[in-house]
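Quick question about two entries, pasted in order.
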Amino acid sequence: MPGPLEGLKVIELSQIMAGPTCGMLLADMGAEVIKVERIPGGDDTRTYSEPSVNGESAAFMMMNRNKRSIALDLKTEGAKEVVKRLATSADVLTENYRTGTMEKLGIGYEVLRQLNPGLIYCAITGYGRTGPAADKGGFDLIAQGFSGLMSITGDPGQAPIKAGSPITDINAGILAALGVVAAYVHRLKTGVGQLVDTSLMEAGVQQTYWQAAIFFATGVSPGPTGSAHILAAPYQAFPTRDGWINVGGANPANWLRLTKLVGMPELAEDPRFKTNAARMKNLAALTAILSACLKKRSTREWLADLDAAGIPAGPINKVGDMLADPQVIARDMVVELEHPKAGRTKAIGLPVKFSATPGGIRRPAPLFGEHTREILVELGYGDADIARLVSEGAVA
């Protein structure tokens, strides 16, 4: 099915998570994405052998569907020439090397934009391409700590805890994709490309909107609050007789509904809990009262009644439970693919739906260098040229 970005050609010189997230989103929305993998080895996630499906890395297959693979040794002149040809014929090039690496190779933004003034060049780095930390490399764990995320995650008094998912990697990829699309809109108007620059650091800082607002207003750095909201209550996880549920009863209407549902309407008039500000001030007492009440019944029973009352609530699923949920399935968030080596596999679907141009998953993740010859032919290389590149070790 065609996607809204059908006809957009993207060259991806990225690996592991942030850059491939950007490329995957663009590809799922219809863009043609050519993944340039380094010789030897390819994308680092290819070496993540566990878990694997018939020897193929599950991590690589998850992030690289809908892409074609060309394997290049960027230290060779032949491979650099291939990249220049790719960039000349492309709309977008993405890379997540350390700042300055592409320039040292002779294929940085300034060189490539001379060849293709309409090129949108998207760089994802650890800390951005400017500033005193521009030259530093970046990893999700380091970015979560640097951006303050680990200081607000977990329960008070615990050791610093990172988010369970690589949130700065994934968010940087989403920001990069948004930046690419915005730059593409500009190019459609003007014909001029540009440099799109984002980082893991900025992707982490962006996640601290509420906490930064508190600091700007008070001068105090917020700490972790467990599952509880930092500005509203009750809005957190509560224990039940057989597990845990999340309850969002913070706004006035839902708070009144909740007090009636749990059989304690008097809480609504209790000075400690009458307003959101009062509830936040007395959160420990409120949590103890509601926890004692909710422990009396099962998760299933409470969720049924909370849903019927119109109070936002939900289970705390394990990943497997989430992937099997009827709503997740109905929204096509689990898709099946036929991989040439791994066989029938599953992946996460496209999280944005389009009524006229739905996009979707068209092909599985490529084998290493699976499309090298095919892409070289498209670029105008003949058999003799390709044989020369192979003999030089420039391509595989």
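Here is the second entry:
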Amino acid sequence: MQIILGSSSPFRRKLLEKFKIDFKFASPDIDETAYAGEDASNLVSRLSLAKAQKIGKAYENSLIIGSDQVATIAGKILGKSHNFSNAFAQLKESSGKVVKFYTGLCLLNSKTQKYQLEVVPFKVHFRKLTDQEIKGYIKREQPFNCAGSFQAEGLGVALFTRLEGDDPSTLVGLPLMRLNHMLQKEGINILI
């Protein structure tokens, strides 16, 4: 079965390349707006499944990977900032606090329509940041397309005091250890 990554994220593609397996990618292009009252865990779960199902319609007899991620502070969802002022506001709010990430992961067998679905949490402990540090970080990294307005795989690591979670790839947007387990359940061992 071919493997399809249902994502337009270059970060997820780069992560999946670590498995050294052949895969294709396709953008699911779905509405990612949260429903009224929908919490972060339910949002990423719903969107991960929706992305996999949309791509699964175009690729029969494939394993489709869908993933979505949001950041939260005290339960409030932080979306992608898209611009400097929003990124500044998000990082200012995150300063000295714990930001919790929820990453949804779905592996859909498009032949059987059966899927595995998990939500993987990860906590980031931010250090106290000055306005000058926040502005300098944003100018250098321009993290406008990232949940929480930072890139942990880049300069964003300088913003933190501690990371807390089972799988560091979760923070970048694709929990590889969980995905490996899901692939094994589908009979794929990436080591063989």
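Reply: The longest helix spans residues 40-56. Strands lie at 2-6, 24-25, 62-73, 76-78, 98-109, 115-126, 160-164. Hope that helps.
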